[in-house]
Amino acid sequence: MGEESKKRERRLPLVNFRLLVFCAFGLIFGIFLYLRIRFGGLAPSDFLFCGVFLGCSLLPFSWKRTVALLLSVALSGGIGAGAIHLYAERYLRGPEEGTYSITGTVTSFTVQNGRCDVLLENLSFDGAPAGGKMKIVVLSEEVRAGDILAFETTVTKKGLPMSGDSYAEYLFYSDIRYEGTSVGYNKTGTGKNALLRVVSALYDRLEGDMGGTEAEVAFALLTGNSRGMDEGLLGEVRTGGIAHIFAVSGLHIGILFGAVWLLFRKRRWGVFPAIGAAFLYSALCSFTVSSVRAVIMCAVMGLYRAFGRKYDFLQSVALAAGAVLLLHPADFLSAGFRLSFGACLGLALFSGSLSRLLGKIPHMPRFLTSYFAANLAVQLFTFPILLETFGYFSVWGFVLNLFLIPLLPAFFLTVLLFSLLALIIPPAAGVFLAVPKGLLSLFLLVMEAGDFSYVFAGISLGAGGAVWLVASLLLSERFRMRLVLRLGVATGLAAVLAVCLLLENAVFTGVRIDVYVCNRGGAALIRSDDTALLVIDGGIGLDDAKDFLSRRYGGHLDGVVVLSEDELAGINRAVYLDAETVYACDEIATGLQERDVVFGESVEAGSLTLRYEARGKLVLTACGVAVEIDFEGDEALGADLFIGLESGGLKYFLDRGIIKAI
């Protein structure tokens, strides 16, 4: 009987076939492959996870299962590629750049320092309807969601994101096709969307009767719009790994769904008010990716349990991912999609095995083992996503979430309930809002008392990200593998990951150049075995430069080289980067101490020597190769290698020639 059981087990597939899972996988891979090909940056490692996943799913081979699997993946992959192609072509449509008379409805707003950053939809240009959304800045604090604005401005048209420009990717998946200059405006009416008016009323009520930082935090907690929060606090929240609390994540939807369902728990139909409340709240928050995912998963779970059916968590995740991407395929690029679904996959892959492992600890309560296992599972799978998306991984995230997540239901529901009461009964708003203000004041005291800024950063995973995801699949409980083989695979993948990290981040010989370009400017990180210099032009923002460094380099920076016709703008950014020296071409008055900035026609730092040909043109000679860097001019004919705005996010290794890696 034992031998028969072993034979039967050997005939089982290494990965169970679930049609929805493979359709969702094909859809995602089709979108991913299209974006990598069209936007630049396709690499062999992009096929690693797909190849391993499909290969393991086919073993042992059965022609019926093989045909069904490959057909579902191929068809859904084609649908995904087609959907994102149509979205990209639609994104490029619309009026060209120029000056127009525009009307549009405000969908979101951020009040800061006497101005409003405004996002508009339902646009018309000179009376003609136009698709997409538009960003403008108005010199007023009175603009609110739902307002219809009329104004005249010079419009900048946005193109497709290329070579890892994260800001351009944000514009693309948000369908923001136009940007305008600061404008005066006329309010011509109010839109028909009642939820937008509720958001505006909520903001005014919180600011009027709560005020201060507490009002900003409450508005972010309830709507997901955290752009009005204090930058220092927002930075602490992000580096502390708890930014999801202010992003209307799946936690918020799950809490609200569970609370409403609990009220009607004695009625089978009680699931429908819970679904309705979750959907309405997601709509109030502009249908963020994570909230839509949670609504779908909560609805499926609720309906299955209400009618006595077995709930499959992994199938539910796949269904939600497919629905989100079919409706809006560009959401694949958003951090919300990757982190929300990544967290769910982490739970599906690891929570069971980690729970059993932690359950072996003597005297540990079962609820604690499940809770710790869930947190660890989420952290394991989202680690490469966080590092790739934001350039850092929070060291404090696991600890802070252990304490905050159990408190969030009471915290969130209290703020929501009393804020709704304040809206319904305005004369008593001050009394109602005193309770959430006290809770939020306590939260702010905790954040001020600690330093949560320490993060793991400066490491680029490169192909190591794909290796990490492959390891997550092969070593998870969803993959049938004997213990000895599992240990061998784990050892091998750990070695491959170490090699990938070394190749991606180390400089053994010669010179390495990492390039970053965006629609606002460019930067190049030049490293030898003993020196690191960052070259920036005057157009790149300080946040962009810091973000580039956090993703590519965590070591000591010897200097920042300013490469711009507008030297003062470049120097003003460079002095805020953590480097020993700032270099510039022509001496100008900066208002800084002379030792902070070194002016001259050449830059000499360690083994690196660069020569200015002009303020905006720099030449590096290394390993017998002449490299010209110019983010503002045209390509030079006399250089072996030219780096400019068209060079994309590439890496160049100079050692007895040029080796280019994408």
Mind explaining what this structure looks like?
This protein has 662 residues and is an alpha+beta fold. The protein has 5 domains: 17-91; 98-192, OB fold (Dihydrolipoamide Acetyltransferase, E2P); 193-316 and 398-451, no CATH class; 464-505, no CATH class; 511-661, Metallo-beta-lactamase, Chain A (4-Layer Sandwich). It is 50% helix and 19% strand. The longest helix has 29 residues, at 63-91. The protein is globular, with a radius of gyration of 27 Å.
Q: What profile does the largest beta sheet have?
A: 8 strands, mixed
Give the strand order, joined by hyphens, for the main sheet. Answer: 15-14-13-12-11-10-21-22
Shape label: globular
Q: What's the end-to-end separation, in Å? A: 55 Å
Count the DSSP helices: 20
Radius of gyration, whole Å? 27 Å
Q: How large is the share of residues in beta strands?
A: 15-25%
Overall mean pLDDT stands at: 86
Q: Which class best fits the helix and strand makeup?
A: alpha+beta
What's the count of strands? 22
For the record, the count of structural domains works out to: 5
Q: Which percent range fits the helix content? A: 40-55%
